[in-house]
Input
Amino acid sequence: MATINDNYLKLKAGYLFPEIARRVNAFAQANADAKIIKLGIGDVTEPLPQACVRAMIRATEEMGDRETFKGYGPEQGYAWLREKIAHHDFQARGCEIDPDEIFISDGSKCDTGNILEIFGNNNTIAVTDPVYPVYVDTNVMAGNTGDVKKNGEYEGLVYLPITAANNFTAQIPDEKVDLIYLCFPNNPTGATASKEHLQAWVDYAQANNSIIFFDAAYEAYITDSSIPHSIYEIEGARNCAIEFRSFSKNAGFTGTRCALTVVPKTLTAKADDGSDVELWKLWNRRQSTKFNGVSYIVQRGAEAVYSQEGKEQIQQLISFYLENAKIIREKLTAAGLQVNGGINAPYVWVKTPNELSSWDFFDKLLNTCNVVGTPGSGFGAAGEGYFRISAFNSRKNVEEAMKRITEKFKV
Ligand code: MLT
Output
């Protein structure tokens, strides 16, 4: 008799965003005339930069020509893309990252989950609270947690609050943890981490032989020059951090799919026999066995991000979404709501009015304003009483959504 991975039974009913989509679809079916505006999932709405589009058209034509056709590419990604990333994203910021420490993939969501395969099951794992739910759910699936508790936390995980009480910074634990997930600019709070804060994390990780999983998917939204874009801007990070990056939120590749993971060759962890093993070798082995690379066409599209034209077009996209975030912040603040984030990030983290729970506010907003956001409690127990509003939508929709919300929720 076939058996299942019982860890899946520990998961909460549905993954957050499909659960929201299910509720919104049910509402839409019952209210056919409602003009719903979605500021929930952080999915981009603006078309791809022309530089990327043109590069992908050229690449498609190459694939249709016998002389330039390509079959399987390198599992780690084409050298020309890895070189550009190493140069523009890392070396230009003073980070010592070599092209062959960069692995191209089809998404940071998959990579942040898959990375667990190269680690043992006895690690103590820390996540922030609130947190991007993928980090938690993939640990549950991998059997790295116990059961879910009443407050939604899983036994066996260490939760590090990111709350108003600590000014939305990730609290460094008193205990020793082995693996730590950090995401800055933060999803969902939109908070950022200063150089000093990240240095404290790197110092902690080096002192405790821990590994930091640094999710920098939103780094392009940093406008404050004092805030690091990469964990490798921090001294010592090559010895303790893996970084995840994505083309989804800067170049609008959520539907096109391209991302990257950096595993420095200097990074090691212990084998059962106590020896030090290079994590790069394990990740390389994993990727070459289970992954056949991102399509040539998409990698050419990603390469165009680093052309002069591509850089300018991406900057326009980022500025557009940041202006949306500014409008959201200003309108909600003027209506008396308490807002955080949305300055160096595309997410605005709003305190729910009148002590409403996150899901109650979600329902009220959907029913009375036909606006969709994301309940803070969906990101963890400490997110209760908060609500995330995403800046990813057209200007017209953002303005209309703010008009509807501020009319109904003046406090
Ligand atoms: C979000 O809304 O948190 C993001 O869309 C998640 C993701 O990028 O997978």
About this structure: Residues 308-334 form the longest helix (27 residues). The domain at 13-42+310-408 is CATH 3.90.1150.10 (Aspartate Aminotransferase, domain 1). The pocket of D-malate is lined by residues 41-43, 109, 132, 187 (CB under 6 Å). The chain has a mean pLDDT of 96.
